[in-house]
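step: validate -> pass
step: tokenize input -> pass
step: predict -> running
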Amino acid sequence: MKTKKIIALVLTLALSLSMLFGLAACKDGTKDPTNPANPNGSKTLADAISVQVGGNPETIDPALNSAVDGGNMLITLYETLLIIDKDNNVQPGQAEKYDVSPDGLTWTFTMRDGLKWSDGTELNAKDFEYAFKRVCDVKNLATPYAETVCGMIEGYLDAVGNPDKDGKPTTTPDINKLNVKASEDGKTLTIKLAYPCSYFDKIVSFATLSPVQKATVEANGDAWATKPETYVCNGPYMIESWTPGERIVCKKNPYYKGGWDSSKIVTNHINFLLIEEASAAYAAYQNGTALMIKEVPTEEIPSFKKASDGGDFYVDPILGTYYISLNLGKEIFQNKNVRKALSLAIDREQVANVIMQGTYSPAYDYVGPGIIDAEGYFEENSKKANGGKSFIGTDYAANLEEAKKALAEAGYPNGEGFPTITYSTNESGYHIPVAEYLQQAYKQLGITLNIEKVEWMSFTPQRRAGDYEMARNGWVMDYNDASNMLELFGSTNGNNDGKYSSAAFDAAMEKSKTADKKAHFEALHEAEKIALEDYAFIPLAYYNDFWLQSEKLQGTWHSPYGYWYFQYGYAYAD
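step: predict -> pass
step: emit ->
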């Protein structure tokens, strides 16, 4: 622990010195006469704002990223066909308008005139066609979101080789089968869907479908997204410098044109501080190096004053669930009673309200609060259909007895003969305290649990590769439709880390692909019920984001999808 604190202090000192020309030394900052808070331009804007949203990202290749920290950077560096505004409404982005055919199958996007990449070269609809098809290039890329963002497009299955239930192609993949076509002049992009998708406008607003420059990608291979000189993008900001383990410095993109109001993009630089450890992030916040940090030391939370009371500690609900993945490729987890025992042995009230200090809410179902249904909300309707109760009971004592009974029925009474299992997690937030709680909870069943701590940059690829037994997991929604939470457990989905495979579940998800709103949500309720009854995963808590943000940082906002928007962010020089 002492070593970690020394490292944290050294890192913070290094960051403070390297950013001497950030907030504190801004004689070259710009005036802001258009800002209502500064009508006369009498104040000088800081040249830079520095924020912390995570450590080293696994990737900031739009097609490959599946993490929120990478997503926060992507929405600053790229712009999709459409964008999501501060009020969570879809607005024109790189496309100035779009039209949908009466049958809901053909979507035509008209591009803005004069679009350019950050290197000054022309950008048009052909770049989006390339990006969409690249997401489906299973021969060359392991893209986790292909099915989620392109599965509804005509020709998708042929594009990815008509995969079997294990995700292996049965035909030769051909990305040109994907029915996404740019016009010869690059002015329009036409997408033909296999079935109507009412939320397709939100799909094309998702960062995975950001355009990428074909020439740069093909010339540099995977390395294109790791260096400032080859990281060509099209958003309000572009990468100026990148020091792994320290920071990514972004500067205003002089060629930007799109859906964001350029007059409000007033800060010259945004510094993403790549700090994984909460103590180091907090030290950077305390000394003014960082104006906002996502990694907050949980032991300090009781001392923080909430923003609602005039403080700088923010807690905001987001649409997502914290859960545990069980690697169903491991024989021990193939017994449903084992999975049931491991789920019911957990006191979710203890986890959410004590271990997580009330910053999360206990999850007794999978799809959580705030997610819409055909009428009303999905979670509330799930309970109504279940006699007013959630799937997992709220009586922990009864749950624990049921867990012991299930383990005995699995052939392990009092845990006798049950192998030691390993729980893998990264170290931020409450992840380690939750892991330590699980050790105690499973002791009541006679089960020994070891904890494997994994660096964040390695954690998600390790989990995706199935190199674990049990692992912390979670999902924050990309758009407000329960399909986005549930499709993760489809047999061929790239984000199905537990490798759950159920013909009944897959059939229910297939039924949900309909323009009939009522039938769509009925099928999703059926799918959730199947997965919960199979104990395919272990829901723990519903997410809230919590962070510290200085009052000096203005113009930013936080979305229910777990993103911070810094495009309009600014601070005044001291």
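step: describe -> Residues 117 and 234 are 5 Å apart (CA to CA).
step: cleanup -> pass
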